[in-house]
Amino acid sequence: HLATSLPLPSERDHLRPRIDLIAFMIDIKSKYSLKNVEASLAHVDANFFLGKVCFLVTGVGRVNYCSVDMNAIWKLGEVYCSPVLFCELELEGIRVATAQRLLRMLQICAGHIPGVSALSFGTLMRNSADD
After folding, report:
1. Which domain holds residue 90?
2. Which of 91, 126, 128, 131 has fewest C-beta within 10 Å?
3. Is residue 130 part of a domain?
4. What are the pLDDT digits (tens) for 62-79?
């Protein structure tokens, strides 16, 4: 399910499936994109920041057209203890690899991978980013 911002409308709460992972998309070419994500974060329950949130930064192949401060994006990941993934949606190979990575994260967050929790996976992602 996709939403352009949070909070989600409450009139359909009873129809909404369980939310296992929230992927915030930030377009590196749009300051509005980052501001929208920052405003939406206030509407996310704190429990989601225990491994069930990630930031997906798109447009990284166009760093020349970058409108978003990369330090601000890294800071979001750090402050919210959430992984930051970078991708270029216009390149099919990278798009497919990113989709597979997000699917694997979703499987873990939904509890479909025995022995791996969203919290331990989030910690592993942060530790690998530090290397």
Report:
1. 18-125
2. 131
3. no
4. 666 778 888 999 999 999
